[in-house]
Design goal:
Blueprint (H helix, E strand, L loop, with lengths): L4 E5 L3 H12 L3 E5 L3 H20 L5 H9 L1 E4 L10 E4 L5 H14 L5 E4 L6 H5 L10 E6 L8 E5 L6 H13 L3 E5 L7 H17 L5 H12 L5 H8 L1 H15 L8 H8 L12 E4 L2 E5 L3
Parallel strand pairs: 1-2, 1-4, 2-3, 4-5, 5-6, 7-8
Antiparallel strand pairs: 6-7, 9-10
Helix pairs in contact: 1-2, 7-9, 7-10, 10-11
The structure holds nicotinamide-adenine-dinucleotide.
Length: about 300
């Protein structure tokens, strides 16, 4: 089972990052979006990374032209038909992912490997509605943000994933220069099972006025050696994504530590989603983090 062409559904924060690393590793990439403005934003996000790499002398314009020549953006499901691996990276909403998997099942060749980049939803629940012939070719492929910089990928092997599928994914992850770990098909897998309650606790502490946003983040950054504080990290991930992940994990485990704090829900309802919307716990100007927002 050799993989050379990759399809990506959803070219947002994660999909664009996955497309970028796959192109840089020599794969053909087709990215499917929901409408033209979203597709343009996704492609511009990738181009902005390449412009920075050229400005820093890490890449040449010729290399970038070579990457771009292997990239196709589309709004059509059928454009994914010839891909050997398709990675779904639409928002963390069960109904949307189920619909996406149904569409993909209809348009992909029977032996295409079909994966989700979900942060928390059980892969088995996503594939339950698909025909049994598809099941061996499915798994989870969970990247970390920002994709070009983070070396880990969790491969989620369900009881239905075939050994060939897992092996093909391990080879794919190695070819893009990342380290795979095998994770169980349990909500949140390995990393988010530990990380999400920590982030939610930090938001609860902020809600209870334990400390200011800046002091809370400085505490964990300087006191524990974290690369960024948990509220900064929340803005980076996207507060809507965290709220959706919390909902899935709370429903799965029923433990209060997985419950989304009211402050998180309020910020999401107000459209303050973190870096991607220009404000969350901090104000943002593009990728530049500015001062904390008064809460
Ligand atoms: N943000 C993170 O730090 C992070 C980390 C790991 C995994 N994830 C997971 O990755 C997935 C995507 O998260 P994100 O942060 O990239 O979200 P995002 O909102 O930045 O991007 C999602 C993209 O999907 C597109 N989309 C929606 N419906 C679509 C459809 N039917 N067809 C094609 N495109 C469609 C949207 O237009 C959007 O561009 C989620 O499952 C999330 O849990 C996120």
């Amino acid at each position: 089972m050799e993989i050379n062409s990759i399809g990506i559904v959803g070219c947002g924060l994660m999909g664009a990052g996955i497309a970028q690393v796959a192109l840089e590793a020599g794969f053909e990439v087709t990215a499917k979006e929901i409408d033209q403005p979203s597709l343009d934003r996704g492609l511009a996000r990738i181009q902005a990374q390449w412009d920075k790499a050229v400005a820093k002398g890490k890449r040449t314009p010729d290399e970038i032209a070579g990457f771009r020549a292997r990239m196709q953006g589309t709004l059509q499901w059928t454009a994914l038909a010839d891909c050997e691996l398709v990675i779904e990276a639409v928002p963390e909403l069960l109904e949307l992912k189920l619909r996406t998997f149904k569409e993909l099942d209809r348009c992909l060749a029977p032996s295409t490997v079909l994966c989700s980049n979900t942060s928390s939803i059980s892969i088995t629940s996503l594939i339950a509605g698909l025909g049994p012939d598809r099941h061996p070719f499915t798994a989870g492929l969970h990247f970390f943000n920002p994709v070009p910089a983070m070396p880990l990928v969790e491969i989620i092997r369900t009881v239905l994933s075939s050994a060939d599928t897992v092996q093909a994914l391990q080879a794919f992850v190695a070819r893009i220069g990342k380290t795979p770990v095998l994770a169980p098909d349990s909500p949140g897998f390995i990393v988010n099972r530990l990380l999400v309650p920590f982030i939610l606790d930090a938001i609860r502490c902020r809600e209870q006025q334990l400390a200011t946003t800046a002091d809370l983040d400085a505490g964990m950054k300087l006191g524990c050696g974290h690369p960024m504080g948990p509220l900064h990290l929340s803005d980076f991930i996207g507060l809507d994504t965290i709220a959706n992940v919390a909902e899935v994990m709370f429903e799965a485990f029923g433990e209060p530590r997985f419950k989304a704090p009211s402050l998180l829900k309020q910020l999401v309802a107000a459209g303050r989603l973190g870096r991607k919307s220009g404000s969350g716990f901090y104000r943002w100007e593009g990728e530049l983090r500015l001062e904390p927002v008064a809460l």
